[in-house]
Design a protein that fits this description.
Helix content is 33%, strand content 19%. The protein is built from 15 helices and 19 strands. Helix 1 runs antiparallel to helix 2 and helix 13 packs across helix 15.
Length: 538
């Protein structure tokens, strides 16, 4: 693969800062950046030169404190002074290059104060962040181009919408640079269609977490039972794509009320040894569990990639039903590691338990083969999460009272709500078979969820579209429906409201209990219930 982007970026890193100390006029470095670098980007074949203009600037008359390479969609702008565009910005010290989705400030500032200009740019940025897919880019206001910046350089910081930093001493591969630029061009295209042209029907190209470099994820997917939270983690088309991730990079566990630190991390356990079949000796050794395995795998992948977090070396620790366990007890002091810095590492190291530390150093399944690298990066007897270790968890809101999470734990995770939705899903076609009469699962769920909301004044216990799966094809049998759906509705919703607003009732039979559904003399009760319920819905 030709190294067009790598060559251009390395040239900036290696030459600009020194050149800027000398004369500006007729300088070969300035000429190369202005002329050759844009041509390199065209030669990369990533950019449609009929649609985009590429410019590079090192200043006008004097060296720029922050030189740039800009990519401008001709219909929007051809200048860094106005409109929205893609621009690479070299930091003032020459040690970092930022790929940014940015906006010009000159036109905005014509009739505004400096504060009003910044406020306007942040408002426009917020609109973009709300409407556009940011891919793996950051969208905070923490980009730093240097100290004592000129007004122009300061405005580059203030105008940034999305960004990613490349460091001189840790420049990623050409493949990653190309992929990042492709993602940024997709953002630009989405901006053009959805915001610039106001085309709300525009559907951007889907992106999959498994196919590109990934920012560290520490996320809890939450929602009503059956909304497909675990499915979303695995789904490569509409979720995070773990289904296509190599098994050696995926680790899964499910929390429950008796789950503890030893089951999560590992513990010393006895092991019988048959010594020459004459007597049984008991030895003890550390038995690693899911966290220890994921932790070691992530560091092994990180070092194998040359101390980089790449698309191909992401490791995922998936925790199902995270709120069904006592998180404070399960995580113990590992809790401190969940604070991540801007690069994805733990902000603080902690001391490892001696048995865990010994396993990491001396066990082949640990970090024995890369111990010197680990000791240099983290420290002997220490723990620190690497940036390629991602933690994804699921949580049913109906179970949130089992072990309430404190705010300190919650704020160390991003939270993603997974709503109840039948759009484009097989569940929209499910049918419930009640003694030969068929009822739409989708209509049933929508009707019952309204009743749950009226009765409980909460969405937590509503039914998700995948609360139940069909027995055969798209048919849900009466027995399965009774045992799973009706029992849940009675036990979790209506039992405590019996004869006090419960929707377990029919006109002829009045209020009934779950047990009534199994009485021979009331064999038609469920069908009557469904008929009246669906009639209400209609």
């Amino acid at each position: 693969m030709s190294q067009y982007l790598t060559e251009s970026i390395k040239y900036l890193f290696n030459n600009y800062t020194q050149a800027a100390k000398g004369p500006f006029a007729n300088n070969s470095v300035g000429e190369y950046i202005r002329n050759t670098v844009p041509q390199n980007f065209i030669e990369s074949k990533l950019i449609d030169k009929e649609k985009y203009k590429i410019k590079a600037s090192v200043g006008q008359g004097i060296w720029a404190q922050v030189p740039w390479i800009g990519i401008f969609r001709a219909e929007i702008t051809d200048s860094a002074q106005n409109g929205v565009y893609i621009v690479y910005l070299l930091s003032a010290d020459g040690n970092s290059l930022f790929l940014t989705f940015n906006q010009g400030f000159t036109d905005i500032a014509k009739d505004k104060t400096a504060k009003e200009t910044v406020d306007e740019m942040r408002m426009r940025a917020s609109n973009c962040i709300h409407k556009l897919n940011k891919h793996s880019f950051r969208s905070d206001e923490n980009i730093r181009l240097g100290r004592n910046l000129t007004n122009r350089a300061e405005m580059y910081q203030k105008g940034t919408i999305f960004y990613k930093e490349y460091q001189k001493q840790n420049l990623p591969s050409e493949e990653i640079l190309r992929h990042d630029l492709e993602d940024m061009l997709e953002i630009y295209e989405e901006y053009y269609e959805k915001i610039y042209k106001g085309n709300d029907d525009f559907v951007p190209k889907p992106t999959f977490i498994s196919s590109k470099e990934n920012v560290t994820m520490q996320k809890i997917l939450f929602g009503a039972p059956g909304t497909g939270k675990s499915f979303k983690i695995d789904d490569p088309a509409k979720g995070y794509g773990l289904k296509v991730v190599d098994e050696s990079r995926k680790f899964r566990t499910t929390f429950h009320p008796d789950y503890d630190y030893a089951q999560f991390v590992g513990a010393y356990k006895p092991k019988p040894v048959d010594a020459e079949a004459k007597k049984i000796e008991i030895t003890y050794s550390f038995v690693s569990q899911v966290f220890a395995k994921a932790y070691a795998a992530a560091w092994m992948q990180y070092f194998a990639s040359g101390n980089e977090s790449t698309a191909e070396n992401q490791v995922y620790l998936v925790i199902e039903e995270i709120n069904r366990g006592n998180c404070a007890q399960i995580f113990g002091d590992i809790f401190q590691l969940l604070d991540r810095d801007s690069e994805g590492f733990s902000q603080y190291t902690i001391d490892a338990d001696c048995d865990f530390a010994d396993w990491l150093e001396n066990n082949d399944a640990g970090l024995k083969s890369v111990w010197d690298n680990y000791k240099a990066e983290v420290g002997e007897g220490k723990l620190k999460l690497p940036p390629n270790l991602n933690i994804l968890a699921t949580m049913n809101t109906s179970d949130q009272s089992l072990f309430p999470m404190d705010s300190a734990f919650k704020r160390r995770f991003d939270w993603e709500y997974v709503p109840i939705s039948f759009d484009g899903k097989d569940a929209a076609n499910y049918q419930i078979d009640i003694d030969g009469s068929f009822y739409s699962w989708k209509n049933f769920v929508e009707t019952v969820n309204d009743k749950i909301l009226d009765l409980t004044e909460s969405e937590d216990k509503q039914l998700g579209e995948f609360f139940i799966k069909p027995d055969n094809g798209n048919i849900i049998s009466k027995e399965r429906f009774l045992g799973k759906v009706m029992f849940y509705l009675w036990n979790e919703i209506c039992k405590d409201e019996h004869k006090n607003g419960s929707f377990f009732r029919t006109k002829d039979d009045g209020y009934f209990t779950f047990q009534d559904l199994y009485k021979p003399e009331k064999k038609d009760l469920l069908k009557k219930f469904m008929d009246e319920l669906m009639k209400e819905e209609g």
